[in-house]
Amino acid sequence: MITDATPRSAEEALRWQLRRIGSSAWEGWALRFQRLAFGYASEAGWRHCSEGLAWFTEHDLVSDGTPPRGALAWFEVGGRVTVRGSLGDGQVIGPGVDGRIGVIAHDTLGRYLGWTPAIFPFAR
Predict the structure, then answer these.
(1) Closest by alpha carbon to 55, among 32, 81, 37?
(2) Domains in the chain and their CATH numbers?
(3) CB 3.0–4.6 Å: which of 11, 26, 105, 115 could bond 67 by disulfide?
(4) What is the pLDDT of residues 105-120, one digit of tens each?
(5) Whose CA is closest to 100, among 49, 30, 25, 32?
(6) DSSP three-state, residue 57
(7) Do 40 and 117 touch, CB atoms closer than 8 A?
């Protein structure tokens, strides 16, 4: 069963992420960063962001337009799929902003692929 209930609310997840701005410890771990932000300790079931996006695509859960606050925003950067948390108003947060956790306009990160609800169906 697919549910959008997560251990942490979207607001709690965004606060968790904002407290880590400037950290370089998460570089290369965009999916793990989002999973942990939403309160899951175990792996998401996807090794790479591209696998996560493929799952959302197969379940018809990818939307166009500016991602709403608390959604997962998906991008292609340097030929690889990556994910960030949406702060709303066109801003996203996650690793990869000058090698650190940072906030960036969603339309400047890379090729925008769409947004999905913050669902981690295989994480515990």
Answers:
(1) 81
(2) 10-116 (3.90.1720)
(3) 115
(4) 988 989 999 999 998 8
(5) 25
(6) helix
(7) no
